[in-house]
Every structure is written in C-alpha cells, then in structure tokens.
Amino acid sequence: MGNSFRCITNNPLVKERGFWELEYYDTDVLGLFHLVKSEVEAGYKLLTHPLSGSIRPDITPYKTVLLSARAEKERDGESEGLIEKAIRYAGDLYGLREVPVYKRWNDAAKKDFQLVDLSIIERALEVAQMNR
Amino acid sequence: MKLTLNKFHVKDIQFAQADSFENGILYVSKKKLAEYLMEDTNIESVDFDIARPGESVRIIPIKDVIQPRYKQSGTGQIFPGFVGDVETVGNGETNVLEDCAVATSGKIVAFQEGIIDMSGPGAEFNSFSKMNILVPLIYPIEGLDKHTHEATVRIAGLKTAAFMAKTTLGQEPDEKEAFEHETILEMARKYPDLPKVVYVDMVQCQGLMHDTYVYGLNVKGILSTMIGPLEVLDGAIISGNCAAPGHKNATIHHENNPIIESLLRRHGKELCFVGVLLSNESAMLKEKKRAAYYTSNLSSLLGVDGMIISEEGGGNPETDLMLNCKFHEKKGIKTVLVTDEYCGRDGASQGLADVTPEADAVVTNGNGNQFVVLPKMDKVIGDVETVRIITGGNADSIGEDGSLSVEIAAIMGSCCEMGYEHMMTRLR
Predict the structure, then answer these.
(1) How many Å lie between the alpha carbon of A97 and the closest alpha carbon of chain B?
(2) Handedness of CA B36, B40, B44, B47 (dihedral sign)
(3) Which of A42-56, B216-230, B246-260, B380-394 comes out lowest in average pLDDT?
(4) Among residues 51-110 of chain A, which lie with CB inside 8 Å of chain B?
(5) Among the partner residues A54, A56, A105, nearest to B210 by beta-carbon distance
(6) Is position B376 within any domain?
(7) According to the 3-state scheme, what is the secondary structure of B183-211?
(8) What 3 state SS string does B43-102 have?
(9) In a domain, A132, yes or no
(10) Which residues have CB under 8 Å from B379's CB, separation 6+?
(11) Mean pLDDT across the stretch B213-222?
C-alpha cells in the first residue's frame, strides 16, 4: 500500500528518519515554498499549513510540507491561496534583515530546528491517524 | 459558581531560612524550595535569583511566566493535573500573589525564549517589569531528551508558583475580587434580553514546544470543547508553548486572561457571557477546519449572538483565526478577532499570514517586528548570549557596548494576543 500523502522537506532529520517516501530538497524555506507552489499548480493539495509551527520562516531553516498523494485535474483554490500567502509572508520576513536570521545558526541550533520540524510533522500525522 | 480571588500585594521577595509572607514581604527558603523541585529526578541542580522593579536587571532566556496562586478553599488545587490532582477548580477562594511572578530560566530547551528587562526602555513593553520576580534556574541531568526537558522546566515553574503562594494560607488578603458564573440555563432565564457572547480561546498543540495543557491533558487532536471561565482563572490551562516570546500565551496570561475577566465583569450587566470554547491550532489543514467548524457548531448550539476570539502565535494560527471567523459569521454570529502582527520594520507589510473578508472587526496588539535597542544592564540572570538564538534576536544582537538590538518579538508578552499589555497598532 502506498502513502496517502507526499512529503516535501528540506529537513535532513526527516530525511534521516526515512520512514516516509519523501522528497528531499537542499533549499531554504522560501525555496521549498516555491517548489510546493508548482506542485499545487499541478493539482496537488496541501495537507499541512506551509507555515506550520510557531517559528517564523525567516528564523527556521527547515520545513516539511505534506501534499495529497494524487493530483486532481482542477487546482485546489484553498491550497493555492495558502501557499501564495505563505510565500508573501516569508518573503516579507526575509526582507527584515540584509542576511535572514536562518542563515546564521550553528550546528547545535540547526539540530534543534530540525527536531522541532520533525516533531510537528510526526504530531500532524499522529493526530490525523496517518502515521504508520 | 463563585470564585473569590484573595489578592496579596507583594512588595518584595527575600531569601530566608523559612518560608513566610509577612507585611507584603515574601520570604522564600531556597533550600526547601530546591528540595521540593528536586523531587523530580530529571533535575540535576537548581538555583534561584530575584529581580525587582526598577533594578538594572535583565532576565534571559525565559520560557514561561506564572503568577503564584494557591487554593484557600474549594475543590481541587491550583494547576490541576500538575500541582493539584485532577479535580474541578474554579470555586471557593484562591490566594493570589499580585505584583509577583515566577519566570523559569536556566538551561532551557532552545530558541523561542524571551527577555524581561526590569528597567529602561525594554521595561515599557510588558507588565512583568513591574513585578517582583523569582527566577528558578533549572539545570537538567545530562542527556535528557528535549521533550522531557521541556516538561521538567514547565512543571518546576508551576510547583514554584504554588510553593510561594502557599505561604499566604489563612491570612487576610489586601483585597478580594469575586467572579460569579451561572449555568447556561440559569443565565438564559436571568438575562433573556442581553446579547449572548462566547469567548473562543485558541490553544496551540503542534508538537515539541508547541503544546497547551488543560487539566494536565495535552489537548492535541481534541474536538473543540467548552470550559468554565472560572476554571481557567484557577489555573486549568497551562502553557507548554514556545511561540515567539512576544506573543506566546504564557501561563500568567491564562490565569489572568483579560478577555475572560472583562467579560465576567460585564456579565449580567451589558452582556451575557455564555462561556469559553477551546479551539485547537493544529498543523494539519483538515484539523484546522474541523476545529473551526466544530467551534462554530458549539456556538450555534449555545445560541450566541457574538463571539470574541484570541490567537496564540502567528503564521499558521491566522488560518485558524480566519476559519473560525468565517464559519461563525456564516452562521450569523458576529465576531471580534484579537491578534498581533508582523508587519515589517516600518509597519507597512501585510501583518497577518491569512485574512478573510468577514474579518471586519480586528483588535491588534502591536507589531512584533518593531526594532528596539535595549541598553546594557548591570546584572543578567540567565545567559545573555542566548539573545543570538531567540526569536527577535540574531547573531549580531549584542553590541560592543553590551546593548541588545532586537525585535520586540523577543520581549516576553510584548504583543500579547489576549490584550494583557497596552500595545496597539495605529492605522496611518
């Protein structure tokens, strides 16, 4: 039985866990949002909010987004609206400083950000009873 | 149902051999409090410090702020499920230490902890700077996992608050404030002509450092539910949350929820305050919809005319806020939204990550992106270096002169989305 969702991530810890068939990209959060946007335009639906968690997209270097497993013929308007708003929100916050905060973390801090992102996605799946 | 808050104004906190509360001075035995907290074997060591209003003191990093309370009478005990057993609270009398707080610090989990300055420009951004604060510095045992570490610090803070307020048992308070709240059927009979209003308290439950507890239960994945306002004031809701410090709903905010207090004070006069609904902030979109729909279903069942809703955190919770607004308005229930914003240094950017046309009555509590320079303080409780990793700070936040350059998102409670502080946003 295949997954009932697609997992798009730039979080190495999610990749390391490897218990989902995930799609890993070496990019920043805004870059990941643009990738997600093109998938939404191809008919995939957002299952998680792109701004999940309380850590701002200009602060955390990592994000995992769940999408529907199958693309529909019609684009999902809600998903499209949410990813567009997330891109604008993240873009505005990236512009707060010359170098966004997320580029400045040491390895220990990065590991914490990875753990929080993993915890949020595990919780989302647990609550939605999608975990396996 | 009636809850009386016995208020004791704290003029100072001092360390002493024995615990007591005399003439407005709270005496705390470090040894006894340490022994009590060290019953938790996950704590390697604990120390305490005191910060007073007007001192040149900075506390950083802070995870939670808690108002000391202890029940004088009535059922249950403060912070049920953690300090008290799981038993109904919200009745009888509760002793409250006013002008006083516990701020948990020490080696904390990671980022998302905040700053309190007891003087200078930073002190203007929250009420905590006007309080006498006891700071437990909690050091966990080696190798403790992050989830357990978070729980250890959270519970130690609650126990410290209860320990402090217990000293007032049997004493005459400086003032009393009583809140009363009837059953729904009774208030419908008593106030048939007053507008019926419900308060929706959005609680965040998304994973490590993103959780809220009700009667000790992590409310992840719950269907929206109802809770008595007096229970909330009696410590039934606890913060396990590390949303950005400027807009996290700390435990002290839940204990003193200004929306609940204000509605209770107007209850039976200007309006009929039906009760509090808890609406979960999940990361999953389906869960967000379920929470918002079910909350609006409950509001419909209650037959309310209006709803006030407050948010916790920013970004994705704005979708919960807007869904709740939309679904309520579609059912003919008028809504007022309480939030804060991230609208850039100049305040010109879109401040919310999501909006809906139905949201035409919104109260905002400030712009978390506002930049501020906090001058060097004579004393730091905790570790000032952590400003480099907390929300609102960055690697270059510490100037050569020791001043801190941060967004006000880094200051505890500065933009509290329950309206606990005085910040607002002016439309220009």
Answers:
(1) 9
(2) negative
(3) B380-394
(4) 51-57, 59, 66, 78, 82, 85-86, 88-89, 92-93, 95-97, 101, 104-105, 109
(5) A54
(6) yes
(7) CHHHHHHHCCCCCEEEEEEEEECCCCCEE
(8) EEEEEEEEECCCCCEEEEEECCEECCEEECCCCCCCCECCCECCCCCCCEEEEEEECEEE
(9) no
(10) B55, B56, B57, B58
(11) 92
Label residue A32 left, alpha or beta by phi (over 0 means left) and psi (-120 to 50 means alpha): alpha
User: What residues make up the domain containing A103?
Assistant: 5-127
Residue B69: closest CA among B210, B238, B209? B238
Tokens of B164: 């402090």
What per-residue confidence (pLDDT) applies to B423? Answer: 78
ipTM of the complex: 0.86
Question: How many independent structural domains does chain B possess?
Answer: 1
Q: In this structure, are strands B272-281 and B225-227 parallel, antiparallel, or unpaired?
A: antiparallel
CB B76 within 8 A of CB B223: no
Interface mutation target, options B109, B144, B149, B209, chain A, most CBs of A under 10 Å: B209
Nearest-angstrom CA–CA distance, B130 and B51: 10
Q: Based on the residue annotation, tell me whether B242 is a catalytic residue of this protein.
A: yes
Contact B381, B57 (CB under 8 A): yes
Per the structure, the count of domains in chain A is 1
* Contact state of A54 with B285 under an 8 Å Cβ cutoff: no
Instruction: For residue B14, give its domain range.
Output: 2-410
Q: Which residue has the tokens 């303080």?
A: B377
Which residues on A lie below 8 Å from B350 (Cβ)? Answer: 88-89, 92
